[in-house]
Amino acid sequence: MSELVGTPEQVISDPAGVVIDDLHKSFGDVEVLKGIDMTVSPGQVVCLIGASGSGKSTLLRCVNRLEDPDAGRITVGDFEATDLDVNLDAMRRQIGMVFQQFNLFPHLSVLENCTITPRRVLKQSRDEAEREALHQLDLVGLKHLADRRPAQLSGGQQQRVAIARALTMKPSLMLFDEPTSALDPETVGEVLAIMRDLARAGMTMIVVTHEMGFAREVADRVVFLDKGVVVEEGTAKQVIGAPTQPRTQDFLRRVL
Ligand code: ADP
Ligand code: MG
C-alpha cells in the first residue's frame, strides 16, 4: 500500500497548557491517584508510562472530566477543569481524545464519522464540515477512503480516522490512551507517524503509551506512574535511558 502518511502541513496555532496540582481520585476504598502533580506546557508532548492499573487512564480521564477528581486542581488552557461551574462542553470541545478502541461509528462512512460532531456541535454546514474533514483525512493519508465504512479499513487506518476526526474539532490539546495497543504490529508505525507529525505541528499532547521508541523520539517529557504516584519524570533520555528509581528500572526491564 502506498499511502502518503505524514504531511505536516498543519500548524496548531493555539495549543493549550495543562497544569495538574495534587490530584486525588479514589474508586470506593481504593485510592487510584494519590496526589499527582504534572505540568504540560503549550505545544509540549508528555508520554505517560507505567504498568497496567497504575492509574494512567484515570489521570487522562480526569483531565477532560470523564472522571470527577476527589481533590486537587486541573487547568486546561483557560479552563479551570476542576471548578464546579466550568463550562464542560466548551472545555471538552478543545480536547481531542483517542482511545485504544477507535470508537468510530460503524454505520457511518469515514467522512460522516468526521463531520457528524462539527455539524452537530459546531453547527457547521455540510459543505464546511466536509471540506475540513477531507482536509484532515488528507493529512492522515486517507482521503481516498472517505466513502468506506470503518469495518472496511485496517486497524491502523481506523485509528488514523479517529485522529482525523478529533482534529476536525480544532482541539488545543490531544489525549491519547494507548492508541496503538490494539493494532496489528504492522500498522502501529503509520499511527505513530501521524502522532509525530501532530507533535511537530505544535499540538499539546499527553500520550499513554508502551511505545518507548516513540517516547524517546517525540516526548519532551516522560512521566512514570506507579500505583497512583509519579515516581520519576524527566526527559526521555533521563527516564527511559537512565532511570534512577528502582520501580522505573523494573518496569522498563519488563517492557523494553
Ligand atoms: P491504567 O490505565 O494505568 O491501566 P486505570 O486508570 O485504568 O489504570 O486503573 C487504575 C485502577 O483503578 C485499577 O485498579 C482499576 O481497576 C481501577 N479503576 C479504574 N476505573 C475504575 C472504575 N470506574 N471503577 C472502579 N475502579 C476503577
Ligand atoms: Mg489504561
From TrEMBL:
Keyword presence, RNA-binding: no
InterPro entries (alphabetical): AAA+_ATPase, ABC_ATPase_HisP-typ, ABC_transporter-like_ATP-bd, ABC_transporter-like_CS, MetN_ABC_transporter-like, P-loop_NTPase
Catalytic activity: a polar amino acid(out) + ATP + H2O = a polar amino acid(in) + ADP + phosphate + H(+)
Ranges annotated as spanning the membrane: none
Broad enzyme group: translocase
GO molecular function: ATP binding; ATP hydrolysis activity; ATPase-coupled polar amino acid-transporter activity
Keywords: Amino-acid transport, ATP-binding, Cell membrane, Membrane, Nucleotide-binding, Transport
Keyword ATP-binding: yes
Topological category with respect to the lipid bilayer: Peripheral membrane protein
Signal peptide coordinates: none
One Pfam family cited in the UniProt record for this chain: ABC_tran
Taxonomy, superkingdom: Bacteria
Location of the protein in the cell: Cell membrane
Domain ABC transporter: 18-252
GO CC annotations, alphabetized: plasma membrane
Primary location: membrane
Entry's EC annotation: 7.4.2.1
Family, per entry: Belongs to the ABC transporter superfamily.
Name listed for the protein in its UniProt record: ABC-type polar-amino-acid transporter
Species assigned in the record: Nesterenkonia salmonea
